[in-house]
Amino acid sequence: MQTVRYALVAGLVVFLAVGDAMAECEPRVAYEMTVDFDPGDRSVSGRQVIVWRNYGPDPVQTLPFHLYMNAFRRADSTFFREDRTSRHARPFEPANAGACRLTSLAIDGMGDLLDRLLFIQPDDGNPADETVVSLTLPRPVMPAESITIRIEFETVLPRLVARAGWSGNFFLVAQWYPKLGVLEPPGWRGALLTRWNCHQYHRHSEFYANFADFEVRLTAPAEYVIGATGREIARTPEPEGRTAYVFRETCVHDFAWAACPDFEVVRDTFFGQVDVTAAEYAAWAEWLEMKPADLWLPDVRLTILMHRDHRELADLTLHTLKQAVKYYGLWFGPYPYEQITVVDPAPGAAAAAGMEYPTFFTGGSHELQAWWPFSAIRLETVIVHEFGHNYWQGMVASNEFEEPWLDEGINTYAEATVNRFMYNPGGHPLETLSLGGFLTSRYRYLQRQPLLDPVNRVSWEYFPGHYGVNAYDRASLLLLTAEPLMGRPRFYQALRQYFRKFQFGHPTTADFLQHFKDAGNETVAALLADVILHNGTVDFRADSIRVTPPNEEGRVTSQVAVSCLGELRLPVDILFCFEDGTELRETWRPVGDRNWHEFEFVRETPLAAVVVDPEYRVALDDCFANNSLTRRPVTDPVDTWQGLVQFVMQMLLQVATWLA
User: Fold this and answer.
1) Which among 21, 142, 236, 480 is placed 20 to 30 Å from 133, CA to CA?
2) What angle do CA 584, 585, 587 make, to 5 degrees?
3) Given this chain, do its domains 29-388 and 405-534 carry the same CATH topology?
C-alpha cells in the first residue's frame, strides 16, 4: 500500500509540474490543415485555416508568410546563391525542383485577397527569391483582434536537399506549408517599435516562429507509414486505398512529418519512475541543490520509424532515446509532451539525417554501423543531439536566423556532456571516435583558424565556411571553458535555470549574458561576452625555463616565463615539475596589458618541466602544443610510439570528420 501511495503521489507531482510548464506557453496562432499526399507527383496539397490574434499594442495592416519550399524553385534563389560558396555545393535540377504555390487566400470579413500578395526580400533584396510573401490588408487588425485566414496551397517537394524532400520512396516533409512570420511588439527581443520578423530561407540558418496549436488531417496511400509532430489522435481508411491520419499538438512552433512504405514501427515508453532510479534522482537533486521530488520525470511514449534495412539498430535507438529523455530531463527539466517520434532515413537519404522538429526528429543510421569498426561512429550521438533540440530549439526557441549559437552551440555542449554521463563519465580521450564529444569540436575549431567572427552573428553573415565552427563548436567549447571557472555544479544549475526561465520564451543573446552575469561570477560573464560578442581569443604558452648554477648553499634558481596571447584574461593552473619528482601548482591570471609572467623558485632541485593548464580546462586555447616545456628533449621510445599513435589517430579523426 505504501508503494502504491508513493507512486500515486509521484505521478501527481509529475503531472502538476508538466502541466505548469505547458501552462507557461501561450500559443499566438493556430493552424488547422487538411491535406492530401501524392507520392507519385511528390506533392502535398490542401486547405489551411490560420487563426491569428494581434497580441501587440499597435494596429497591423500587413501579414508576411514564409513559403520555404520556393527556395528550391529557381537556381538563383538566395539559398542556391549562398550554396555556391560551399565546397559541397548542390546543383539545381529543374526536374527535381520544389515549390509552394498559393491558389487562394481569403480572410473572414475581408474577402479574397490573393491578388494583394507581393514577394519581398527583407534580407538581401534578391528579386529571384520567393520565400517570403507579404499581404497588405484592406483594413488593419486592431490590438487583441483575431482574424481567420483561409488558404489553399500546393507544395511540390524537391529531391532531398538540406532539410526536406524525397529520395526514392522516402519523404521528409518539412517547411512545407504557408507559415506566418513573428510579430515582435516593443520589448520583444530588443524591438523598439512593433515589427515583423520573417526572414528568407538561407543555406545556413534554421528557423523562428511563434508557438502555435496544430491540427493536421493528412491523407496518404495506405501502404505508406506516416510519422509526424504531435499525437496521432485518429486513423481511418479512405476510398481508393488511402488512409487519413489526424495529428494534434499544442505549444509547438512547427509541424513536420515523414512517409515511407518501408518503415517498421517500434514503440516503447520511457517510465519516469522506472528508467530513473531513486538513487539517480537523489544524486542529481544533491548536484542541483533541489529536492528529489522536484526532479521526477513524466512518462513519455516513444515511437521509432525504423527503415527495414536498419531494423537491427532499433534497440540501440530506443535505448539511446531513453537515456536522452532521462538526462536532459534531470538536468534541465521534464520533457512536457506526451510523445517523441524518431524517423530513421532510408538508405540514400543521408541529407535527411539529423533534422530536428518539435516532438519529431530524424536519426542517421547506416547498416554498416552494426559492424566493427563502423560501430564506433555512434548512432547515439545523432539521437542525443537531435533529441536535445527539443529543448533548445523546440522549447526555448530562440531566433535561429539571427542567433544560431543559442540553439546549436548550447545543444552541442549539452549533447557532448550527456554523452559523457551516458557512456564515458571518466572523459576518456577515445570518446572522439564517436564523432561527437568535445575533442572533435576542438579539432574542427582549430581546423578553421583564424576565426574572423564573434560567436554571435546573423547566420548568413559569417565568413564563408565558418558558420558551423562558430554556431556549434566554438560555442560549445566556450561553455566547456566556463564550466570549471564557475564550478561544475553551479554552472549546471545556472544552465538549468536559464532553460527554465526562458522555456517558451524566445530569449536573446543579451538574455543569456545577463542571466550568467546575475549568477554572480564576473569572470564567466566577461568570458562569455568577450567570445560571443567580441571574438576574443586566448593562447597560453610556456616560453622558457632558465636554471642557474647552485649557490654556496647548494640551491639553484629556476626561472619560468609564461605568456598569454589574445584578448581573454582567464585564470589558469600551472604545474611545475622538479627533477626530484616533487610538483607544485600555482594559478596565474593575466591582468591588463601584462600578458606574461615570470615565476622564480629557489630550491635544492632544479625545475624539470612546466605545464600550463595541465587538465586542458581552457578548451578555447588556440594551441595546446605550446603549453608545456621541458629542459631536456624527450627521447624515450615509449614517447616516440605515443606520438606516432596520436598522429595516426588524428588522421583517422580527420577522415571520419570529413565523412560525417
Assistant:
1) 142
2) 150
3) no
